[in-house]
Structure formats: C-alpha cells, structure tokens
Amino acid sequence: MALVQLQNIKKSYGKQLALKDVSLSIPSGSFFTLLGPSGCGKTTLLRAIAGFHQQDAGDILVDGLSIGRLGANQRDVGMVFQDYAVFPHLSVFNNVAFGLVQQKVPAVDIRQRVEEMLLTVQLDQLAARMPHQLSGGQQQRIGLARALVIRPKVLLMDEPLSNLDAKLRVDLRRDIRSLQQSFGITTIYVTHDQEEALSISDQVCVMHAGIVQQVGAPWTVYNRPANRFVASFVGANNFVPLAWDAAGGPTLLGQPLQLPQGLPVRAGVPCVASVRPENVLVNQPQPGAALRVDAILRQTMFTGRELQLSVEVAGHGLMEALVDPLENTMALKPGQTVQLVIGYDDILYFSGDDAGVRLS
Ligand SMILES: Nc1ncnc2c1ncn2[C@@H]1O[C@H](COP(=O)(O)OP(=O)(O)OP(=O)(O)O)[C@@H](O)[C@H]1O
Ligand SMILES: [Mg+2]
Fold it and tell me: Which fold has domain 4-226?
C-alpha cells in the first residue's frame, strides 16, 4: 500500500503544453482513474509517474519519498499497456517470469510466484502457450500478471481494455477491480470511457487540456459536476440557457420556473441549466415541483436496456430523454406531441462564461 502524491507537475512537448500544474493526492490502496478526452494528458501523466519520461517541473512522492528523479526501474511501479506489450517470443510463463528474472529472484521462488500469479489471473492452464496462441483478453491477463508479480507499490494501467470487445471489457474490468482490492494495491488507471471510470474507481479525476477539472467519488463527479466540461464529458446531459421573461422572472424552455434559493444569477448574466436524459420524464406525473413543456418526438432508438428519445421543444432545439422500453415502445411514435416533465431538483445551473462553473 502506498500514498502517491503529485506536486505541481508540468510537461510540454516543444510548444505543445501537455500538463499544466497537476497536483493530486492518491490515497493508499485506492483505485484512482484519470478520465478525459483524447489528448488531455492522461498518458503523459502516467508515463511521468512510471519514469518513462521526466516532467519539466514538479515532483512525485510515494509514501512521502520523492521518486520524481529516479529511473523507471528504481521506482517500484508496475505498468500495464493498452497494446499488451507481451514478448512474442516468450511463453506465457516466461512473460510473467521476466521481471523476476531481471530482479535475480532465485529460480524456485520464481516458479512458485509465477504459478501463483497465473492461477490468480486464470492463465494457469495456458502457461506453456505462446502469446500468438492467445486471445486479446488472455494477452492482457499476461500484462496484468507481469505487472503484479513483481509486487510493485503502485500499479499503473493505460487504457488496458480499449482493444477488447465490449463484453470482454466488462468481464475483465470486474476482474481487475477485484484483483486490485484483494492485493490492496494503489492503482492509477487511465481511460477515456466514462462508464468504465465510474464503475471501477474509488475516485475519478477528470482532465481536460492538461488541467485537472475535478477529483471525486464516481457519484459526486456524475451528480455534482464541478463545471460544464465535467457535466458534458461524464454521462450525457441536455444544456439549456436560462432566460428571463418580460416581468423579470426566470424561464427555461419558455416556461417559468422556480430557481434554487440563493442561486447567484440575474437577468443579463448568462447562465446555463443542465438536465440528464434520464431525468427528462415523458408523459409521466412528477410528484414534486416540476417544469412541464410540450415537445415533438423526433426519433426513438431502442438499445435493449432503454429507449432513447430525441425530442424537440419549439424554438429550443433538440433534447434527449431516456425512458423504459417496456412501458413506452408501443406508445411512443415519432411525430407525436409528448409532455416533458423535469423536476426542479434535477436541474443544475452553471455560469455561462468559459469556466462554466456549477452554481447550484
Ligand atoms: N511525444 C510527443 N511529442 C509531441 N507531442 C506529444 C507527444 N506525446 C503527446 N503529445 C501531445 O501532448 C498532449 C497530451 O498527450 P497524451 O498522450 O498525454 O494524451 P492522452 O490523454 O493520453 O490521449 P489519448 O486518450 O488519445 O491516449 C497531446 O496534445 C499530444 O498531442
Ligand atoms: Mg493516452
């Protein structure tokens, strides 16, 4: 178990800024995920922690000791890569044994540790196979076993599941999470898949353009996004500008509404409201205080678990709603008018400037 602290990490490639003053504290034994769009600096940060390249400024501490200037092989970290990076000419057993051989661990101990590890990642039956005789998921299990067998203080994983098919991704992420928990190893995991990040992590760090936007538990990041970027990147959201009627009252989608008490907004200062598709109710009673507005149903998409609706509120463009397919598939047809019901409690408000910080 190890506490990892990143202090004011900066990194540029020539003129391209990749990390701008990143400071993070990653609790010992936690599963910590870096989440963000392509190019936001996730891999750059992970490689700096691994020691594959040097940050321009700042330091990295493990249990209070600086590792920021040590070579990669002195840092006591294990890394799992997106493209598996297994040695093609070595058997499964020898791939996993590789790091222990390098560390000059006695041969009997190597055999025992590798066999144990192969059992743990469910590759014990395949120890003699060569990598080209394995599926992608099995190759990534080698990657995982190879990183864990050296008993590193910190495990780093850079999009380890992104080359696998959807079903395998879900299976393997469950295995990764339970392995991480049984080993109690501090893990820093990179993904651009928000569902993966929410499902697997103790804490999620959302990044954008080399800057940390928010760090929090999955529930917090989803339900209390720090700003508009987080609200739009993590899960789906409808954004609607807040407007004001002639009498000076607030309106949304052309309807008057009640704002949360103390919300720091006023006419003339841009403000944007958000509501998640699952909170846009369609033709349903809403027991609490809610905004009601008519819309035309433009498109329905059945995904199995849910029915995605694209609805148009006259003068306000398209919005998305998610409804239960069992109750609605027969009843809802494109072209018909539906009533949208949005509970006031399900609306968040953000400043309308570039920062887009959450106000409510
Ligand atoms: N070796 C390099 N030389 C120049 N620019 C680089 C280099 N590596 C990364 N960059 C740039 O630095 C920024 C951050 O890249 P990084 O690879 O860390 O992003 P990422 O979040 O891992 O993206 P992805 O999800 O696509 O893997 C990007 O703008 C990228 O183009
Ligand atoms: Mg990357």
Answer: Rossmann fold (3.40.50)
